[in-house]
Amino acid sequence: MINYIWFFMIALGIIVGLITGKGAEISKGIVDSSGASVELIIGLVGMMCFWCGVMKVAEKSGLTEKLAKVLRPILRVIFKDAARDEKALGAIVMNITANMFGLSNAATPFGIKAMEEMQRLNKDKSKASNDMALFLVLNAACIQLIPSTIISIRAACDSKNPAIIIIPAMVATGGAAVVGVVASKILQRYF
């Protein structure tokens, strides 16, 4: 459906531009934005390779596993049913840890596995459990210690200090996670 909406908006914009006699400006805008997109992606690929390498070093050095050990006791308190199942809790921990280090591609399989494990524990298979909803909220908050994607985009756009976003990202995502967990726990009592 969204493809139809985008197609309609683009087609309508081109038609209106042609009717108003701005066809040359539309063509120039399309070519300019295409070139700028390619430049951004090339710059972004280099930075993403660098950050993926840094994250792989963190993973191989055991830093992500140490963070997982710190998270386990906290998650045991937050999650009710999943905390009793080592497979489900392990997948949750790995997903959140990967997200914290900006490894969203690595976090996705762990997130899918965590949902599968929580569905296995779910008593009512027709709807999401409270733990599943809470996990989704934590995933949406996406707590970031190193927001590598944002740093990469800022660097590709020639930011003077692309890493200045680290502390604000920690505060914003941490605050979103806390508010999300509190709201989920309150709503669990009523739904």
From TrEMBL:
Entry keyword set: Membrane, Transmembrane, Transmembrane helix
InterPro entries: Gate_dom (IPR011642)
Superkingdom of source: Bacteria
Membrane-spanning residues: 6-24, 36-58, 88-112, 133-156, 162-183
Residue ranges constituting the Nucleoside transporter/FeoB GTPase Gate domain according to the UniProt record: 42-154
Protein name as it appears in the record: Spore maturation protein
Organism: Clostridium paridis
